[in-house]
C-alpha cells in the first residue's frame, strides 16, 4: 500500500471542484486537489520514489510499487512557460516523501490569471483502489491525502 501525502499546505477541495474538466472528471485518474495558501512555497514529493516526469508546473513520482503520483501546480500553468517556478530536482532523481521539488508562488499564478488549485492524482488507478481519500479541510504539506492499494 502506498500512502500519498500532501505536497502543499492549503485547503483540500477534492477533484470535482478543480476548474478543469480533465481533472474534475478524473480522466487522468482519481485523487484530490488542494487550494494552496497564497504565499511563496515549495511543493514537496507526495511519495518516496523516482521522478519520471518533471516540468516547472507538474511532476510525477513513481514509488517502488509502480504507483505514479502526479502533482500539478495550478491549472493551465503550462502557459506560463515556467515563469515563477523553480525546479529543485532532476528527472530520474530518487526522492523521499517531503523532499522539496518545485518552488513557486500561488499568488503570482493567480495574478497571472491562472487557478493555483493543485490536483494530486493517482495515475492509472481506479477510484476503488484509493482509501481514506481526503476531499475537504485544511491540510499541511506532508499530511496524508489518501492510501493506494
UniProtKB/TrEMBL annotation:
A Gene Ontology molecular function term of the record: kinase activity
Compartments reported by the entry: Cytoplasm
Main location: cytoplasm
Cross-referenced NCBIfam families: PTBA (TIGR00830)
Statement: the UniProt record of this protein carries the keyword Transport: yes
Record-level GO cellular component terms: cytoplasm
Protein name (database record): PTS system N-acetylglucosamine-specific IIA component, Glc family
BP GO annotations: phosphoenolpyruvate-dependent sugar phosphotransferase system
Pfam families cross-referenced by the UniProt entry: PTS_EIIA_1 (PF00358)
Keyword vocabulary terms for this entry: Kinase, Phosphotransferase system, Sugar transport, Transferase, Transport
PTS EIIA type-1 domain sequence ranges: 20-124
